[in-house]
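Reminder: ligand-aware prediction takes two inputs, not one.
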Amino acid sequence: MGTLNGKSAIVTGAGGGIGRGVALALAKEGANVTVVDLNGDGADETVALLTGLGADALAVHADIRDSAQVDAAVSAAVDRFGTVDILVNNAMGARGQVAFEDITDDDLDLAFGTGPIATVYFMRAAFPYLKNGYGRVINFRSGAEMIPLGGMGSYIAAKGAIGGITRVAAREWGVHGITVNSIAPSAMTAAAKGYFDANPDKLKEVLSTQSLQRFGDGEADAGRAVVYLAGPDASYVTGTTISVDGGGAFYS
Ligand SMILES: NC(=O)c1ccc[n+]([C@@H]2O[C@H](COP(=O)([O-])OP(=O)(O)OC[C@H]3O[C@@H](n4cnc5c(N)ncnc54)[C@H](O)[C@@H]3O)[C@@H](O)[C@H]2O)c1
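Here is what comes back for the chain with nicotinamide-adenine-dinucleotide:
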C-alpha cells in the first residue's frame, strides 16, 4: 500500500532520465503511470520496469510539441485508467552552450515548444479530469534558471515561463481543488552526467557550487519530491517551487 494507491499519473519524458525515476517513484507509491515520450523504445522500457514492479503502466509515443498528440495522450490515459489525478510535465528539449546573441528561431521553438507550450497543452487537456477533487500538477523548472547559467538563454527563458504558468494556474485552479507546483532540479542523472563526463572541468566547477557535492538521482531525489507534491502531505501546498538541486541555487 502506498500514498498514491490507484491514482492515475501522467509523466512526460518518462522514457529516460529523471522522468523514468519519477515514474518509478510514483509507481512504488501505488500510482498507475502513463509514460509519454518521443522515444517510443524508451517509453516501452520504462513501462516494462514499472510492470515488473507490479504496477499498471501505459506507454504513449508522442511528440508533446503537437497539441493533437497531447490530447490523444491524455485520452489514452483516461481510457486506460479512468481519469488523470497527477500530471508531471517533465520532458523538455533545448540546445545549450549558445551565446545569447546567437539564439536561433529553432532554439526558441524547441525550448518553448517542449517546455511551456507543451506544459499548457497537457494542463489544458487534463483539466476536466484534474478537477475530479484530487488534481495535482508538478512542472519541471531548473536550477540553471535560478542561478542563472550562461549559454542557456532559450532554455532559461522557457523555464521562467513555466514558473509563470505554475503560479497563475495555482491561483486559478485552487477553486477546483487542483494544486500546481514546480520542481527545480540541478545536476541530476544521465543527460547532465553525460555532458559532465565529457567535460570534467565543468563537473568540478558545477559540483564546487553545490552545497551537497554529488549528482542528484532521478528517482530518490526528484522522484520523491514529486511523490511529496503529488501526495496527501502536500494538500495545502500550491504555487510554489521546490529546489532539488543539492543546494546549488542557494549556494550561488
Ligand atoms: N538533468 C538535470 O540535471 C536537470 C537539471 C535541471 C532541470 N532538469 C529538467 O528536468 C527535466 C528532465 O531532465 P532530464 O535530464 O531527465 O532530460 P532528458 O533529456 O534525459 O530526458 C528528457 C525526456 O524527454 C523526452 N522528450 C524530449 N522532447 C520530447 C518531445 N518533443 N516529446 C516527447 N518527449 C520528449 C526525451 O525523449 C527524454 O526521454 C527537464 O525538464 C529538464 O529541463 C534536468
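The longest helix spans residues 105-130. The beta strands are 8-12, 32-37, 57-61, 86-89, 136-140, 179-185, 241-244. We will return to this case in the review session.
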